[in-house]
Design a protein that fits this description.
Layout: E1 2-7, E2 14-19, H1 24-33, H2 40-55, E3 74-75, H3 80-94, E4 102-110, E5 115-122, H4 132-148, E6 156-160, H5 172-176, E7 182-187, E8 198-208, E9 212-217, H6 234-238, E10 240-244, E11 248-253
Parallel strand pairs: 3-4, 5-6
Antiparallel strand pairs: 1-2, 2-6, 4-5, 7-8, 7-11, 8-9, 9-10
Helix pairs in contact: 3-4
């Protein structure tokens, strides 16, 4: 069921790509019926080509496709295979091997492409990102359980970490990742009662509790003067904004590249 595993081009992000298509019994049956059994390499190449065609390998998903709409972390698209994949994943993560270490960050079915996109959060990691080896272990356990449950042959399951610029689940993850720099979008009215729309800034969290957060500008390039080599000016260093948690519209971890 495992087809390939590869690193994502995004820092600290990775995807484990799996295919619930060719089971071992199906492959064995094909080998038995193959006319020319003398050239094992040729047979294997044929199987690889057919697997590629079955799952449209050229139509690879990207990390962006794992993004969810605000508040919608779990979406099976009303599909029976989505519900099955979700229940099996929960069973795996709740099992003795992984219990308490990981949780589902997001789960999304793309029905038109027969794909299930899963993102796994590592609870005790500073960035919330499991390693590729950890994802591989989860994927193998998930695949094994899916196969016993008769998961459809033509559905691909792809499992990823949330990535370096993960979309934070508000409001709780603001506190969880409060030591990290973020790109935060907030209601402009929180800064100016007459303003409309939203404002986005790269900030650090200065203070936070269960009702409000105090932001300060992060010492990153886009908050510094245009002249190269200069640090933030005094006004920028002293800037603070106190706002209610419900005024935060969106937040992502920020990587200063």
């Amino acid at each position: 069921m495992e087809r390939c595993i590869y690193p994502s081009p995004h820092a600290r992000g990775s995807i484990a790509r799996t295919y619930a298509g060719k089971t071992s019994s199906q492959k064995a049956s094909k080998d038995e019926n193959e006319e020319d059994t003398n050239d094992a390499n040729e047979i294997e190449d044929d199987e690889d080509e057919e697997l590629d065609e079955d799952f449209d390998v050229e139509e690879e998903v990207t990390m962006d496709e794992f993004e969810y709409q605000s508040g919608e972390y779990i979406d099976t698209a009303g599909t029976s295979y989505g519900s099955l994949a979700l229940s099996c994943l929960k069973e795996v993560l709740d099992g003795a091997e992984f219990q308490g270490q990981y949780e589902i960050f997001s789960f999304k079915v793309i029905e038109s492409r027969r794909r299930v996109l899963v993102s796994i959060d590592k609870i005790d990691d500073k960035f919330g990102s499991p390693t590729l080896d950890e994802l591989t272990a989860i994927v193998r356990a998930h695949n094994a359980l899916l196969e016993t449950k008769g998961f459809p042959d033509d559905v691909a399951v792809e499992t990823a970490s949330p990535g370096a610029t993960r979309n934070l689940r508000l409001p709780n993850e603001l506190e969880r990742f409060s030591e990290l720099t973020m790109r935060i979008t907030y209601k402009a009215s929180a800064e100016d009662s007459k303003a409309v729309g939203d404002v986005t800034k790269v900030v650090d969290i200065d203070e936070i509790d269960d009702k409000q957060v105090v932001l300060k500008l992060a010492d990153v390039e886009e908050n510094r003067p245009a002249k190269k080599g200069q640090g933030m000016n005094k006004k920028s260093r002293e800037w603070r904004l106190r706002l209610p948690l419900d005024a935060v519209v969106r937040a992502n971890l920020f990587i200063d590249i």
